[in-house]
Amino acid sequence: MTFDVPSPTWLDTHLYLEIPEIREPEAAFSTPGSRWRATLNQTALAAILPWLQSEYAPTAKVWRSGALSSLWDAVNGTAITFDGLRLVLLPTTAIEADELRVPQEWVDLPSWVADYYLAVQVNIDEGWLRIDGYTTHQRLKAQARYDADDRTYNLDATHLIQDINVLWVTRELCPEETLRADVATLPALPLAQAENLLKRLGNPAVTFPRLEVPFQLWGALLEHGGWRQRLYELRQGLPEQWSAQQWFQSGISHLAQQLGWSQMTLQPIAVTGMRSAPSLESGWRKSQSQTLVRGLTIAGADYELLVLPLEGEVSAWRFELRPVAAEQMIPAGWTLRLLTEDLQAFPNNEDTATETISELYVEVAVEPGEGLVWEVNPLPEDYDREVLRF
């Protein structure tokens, strides 16, 4: 299929791109509006990312690519990372939009804040899109009008830098330019409160969950990757997708497979005892035991996170980080850490390499139904928190 992209006049500095054939998202969405939002974002991403990779940033990639469905079900926008920077695409089908509308989540959530925000007009009928301009986070906070009714920062189009090429020239000539304003950290969200919010907002009859509760509560829920994923699943009417017990019994859920989880068989090795429950007796891995495996890329190298039950122990599990390549080691200073579902530490919840080592591991006893969050420092590429339930 071919498209006719408008020919800009000599006064028009906007970038026009052809968009590929429109494809409906494969994932489910909770409302027709969120499904249309996903289609719009997917269309903009399919056109802009290849252009960005070919012209300016060969290493550009989608931020949290495995979580796009849960993101688009909640809010408009798609983030791309390159050269240590983050850029958010904000597509709209409005003709001659006179402002850039940025959802508050992309501006005030500390882990979501971007360096650049692009206004993108998408003309699906004619098969092209136009980048109307960009701004930085600092300028957005200083110049935009905040609309409390729909929780957006609205920047008049006259304040946008219309020529996208200026972004790259500025990066080259002024690499020390301040791009981000300071944002406040959100208060911690207790587990009981999070569960209540998930029950309330997980009802698909709630059309606009992001506007139902104060932003600090909504933001804390959304910023926690495991809770955001659970919210998405509840709004689809899906049962629990992150139960390690169920994965061993009936296979890993499709959603978890999309994020890189699989199963493999291990040879038996000795177990030295629970670090987070030292009173439990040591055990052995079962011969030819099955383990859950999550592929990770850390500092440009491939690693595996293994999760497996311990033989002879009731509700006891081992989390282990190891390199994929046999000759590779874990550098000194790296840490494998477990947290409660609401991100609280507990005794003996982490293992840190004091020297180059072949593996890091934490063994933990859990209560039935308890959720745990794993972390690795330094962070794996595209890391997003997950809640594994036991």
Structure commentary:
This protein has 390 residues and is an alpha+beta fold. The chain folds into 3 domains: 8-173, no CATH class; 191-235, no CATH class; 244-389, no CATH class. It contains 10 helices and 18 strands. The protein has helices spanning 32-55, 68-72, 105-108, 137-143, 165-173, 191-201, 215-223, 225-235, 244-250, 254-258, and strands at 15-18, 61-62, 78-82, 85-92, 99-103, 116-123, 128-136, 145-147, 152-156, 261-266, 289-298, 301-309, 316-323, 335-340, 350-352, 360-365, 371-377, 387-389. The strands form 4 sheets. The chain has a 6-stranded mixed β-sheet with strand order 1-7-6-4-3-2. The chain has a 5-stranded antiparallel β-sheet with strand order 10-11-12-13-16. The protein has a 4-stranded antiparallel β-sheet with strand order 15-14-17-18.
Features:
10 helices; 27% strand; five-stranded antiparallel beta sheet; six-stranded mixed beta sheet; 390 residues; alpha+beta
